[in-house]
Amino acid sequence: MSELNNNLFNIGRYNTKYTYAEFPSIKIYKSSEGNSWNNHLLFGDYIKIINTNVVNNRIYVKSRNTMGWVKTNQIMKNRVMEVNFVDIGQGDGCHIVTPDDRHIIIDAGKTDNMNRYLTWRFNLYNKRNPLSFPFTLLISHSDSDHYQGFSYVFDNDKIKVDRIYHNGLVERPGSNPLGKVEDGHITGLVNTTEQMKEIIHNPNNRKGSGSLYCKTLFKSLKYNPDVEFLSLSNNDSHIEGFDDNNIIDGKVNSFKILGPIISTTNGKDSLKTINDLGKDKNGHSVILKLIYDKARVLLGGDVNTEFGELIHEHYNQDGNLQELVVDVAKACHHGSNHFHYDFIKSINSTATIISSGDDESYAHPRPDTIGALGKCGYGDKPLIFSTELARSNKEITMDKLESISKKMNSIAAIDKKLKNETDPEEIKKLKSKKTRDNKTINSFLTKYGMINMRTDGRRMIIAQKYERPAHYGKWDIHELVYSDETGRFEQDYH
User: Residue 73's CB: how many other CB atoms inside 10 A?
Assistant: First the structure.
């Protein structure tokens, strides 16, 4: 009996051996022979090796709570880049995992879905201690459907946060809710941790209309008193630690900042205002361009018509429109029709992901927006994904919704009982029941609706769950491969 080649796996703590699923996906088979399988893994999924003995070119493993056999020619030693577009309902929420295991969350929606996703992903149900690594957060702008969900994350004592990036516009009560205005520009930008803490520690900024942003940020200090608050703009070029010198497995991994676009007013850094609070906030969203080797992903909050034009003009005047071109883009503003056509035309992405929800009065994504995204996309058949559509599967029936509702009501009832219960055994039973119910809810919310992007820099998949598992797999997977000839990721149609 032969042993697995050590070039195909890593050795971690306590001599744990692990590897990753090869491109584009693999199966966990029920036995060392035959084609019957019990799980379907995506490119880059973590696999724990139980035994390195090779039987019929397969080894025994565990992944995604499943034991079984995988083929030795379908595993790889190196990790990939993950960009997980979480279904957080109406709003945005994205979880990035770099190949060197750094975690960045960009926006968190309005409800508790992001916290539920993280609890599910990292199995935080019964952990006593926080995760061993911190998260870096980025709030694209101060619309509640982008930041309010962080309130639930900040209440989770198992999740530590080291930095919170933002766009420098800190909404608060008062006549100038985004800061001092001079000559048509907002000059009262908040750039440092000290400036931010002074604002959110002021109780007047956490009361009344316009105080929700400060209230939410203030909650971050509960378990993260040393958290840093740093603003981002195109002047920053890159997120600290993610410039062109950040090399992982011989590949550049950078996070470029394309917006908001900084001006200078009376000798001060400033952002243009059009005297519309909502449009100013949306238009000055942080625009992040993730680069990993040949792969490029654009992540922008709610950039609108007025500021999309400003951004397009800025890069066009510099002769640098190529800076906006990417392979994958998150659609700005949930598929709203408030977009600048030349801006999305310049992006020219092969795939676009729309993050939207059902409970809203805007009918996102708009039909004309979907049409424009397709028309402006790269290739003959540009890809358009939607978290809202990905969630539209057979599992969401009235019976399923009633079941989820009952479990949520059960959790509320358990919390009420726990306040008065003194019997240790009964407390243990109640907590166990609460954990089981939460696992069911969290699994339901995160399995469906999430759009998964994985890349090693030259190969890429974008995947969503099938409405019903087929004999050939559980995932609807779209494969893209970088072409040296075109300099773009091309769809692999097999």
Answer: 11
- Equal CATH topology for 2-76 and 81-390: no
First to last CA, the chain: 35
Domain ranges of the chain: 2-76, 81-390, 402-447, 453-491
Residue 427 has a pLDDT of 82
Backbone angles phi, psi at 366, to 5 degrees: -75, 145
Say if CB 25 and CB 79 are below 8 A apart: no
Contact 261, 198 (CB under 8 A): no
Provide the CB-side half-sphere exposure for 377 (13 A, CA): 26
CB 76 within 8 Å of CB 20: yes
Question: Across residues 169-175, what is the average pLDDT?
Answer: 94
Contact 482, 476 (CB under 8 A): no
**CB contact burial 235-253 (16+ within 10 A = b; e otherwise):** eeebbeebeeebebeebbb
Domain 2-76 sits in CATH 2.40.170: no
Rg (CA), the chain: 23
Q: Which two tokens stand for residue 42?
A: 């995506």
The pLDDT confidence band at residue 51, using thresholds 50, 70 and 90, is very high
Indicate whether 363 pLDDT > 70: no
Give yes or no for a contact between 328 and 351, defined as CB atoms under 8 angstroms apart.
yes
Token representation of residue 297: 């992903």
What is the Cα–Cα distance from 253 to 249, expressed in whole angstroms?
Answer: 10
Q: How confident is the model at residue 52 (pLDDT cuts 50, 70, 90)?
A: very high
Strands 383-386 and 351-354: parallel
What is d(CA 477, CA 437) in angstroms, rounded to the nearest whole number? 30
**C-alpha torsion sign, points 329, 326, 22, 492:** positive
pLDDT at 424 over 90: no
Instruction: Please report, rounded to a whole number, the percentage of residues in the chain having pLDDT higher than 70.
Output: 91
- Look at 388 and 428; give whichever has higher pLDDT: 428
Domain 81-390 classified CATH 3.60.15.10?
yes
Lowest model confidence (mean pLDDT) among 192-196, 252-256, 281-285, 435-439? 435-439
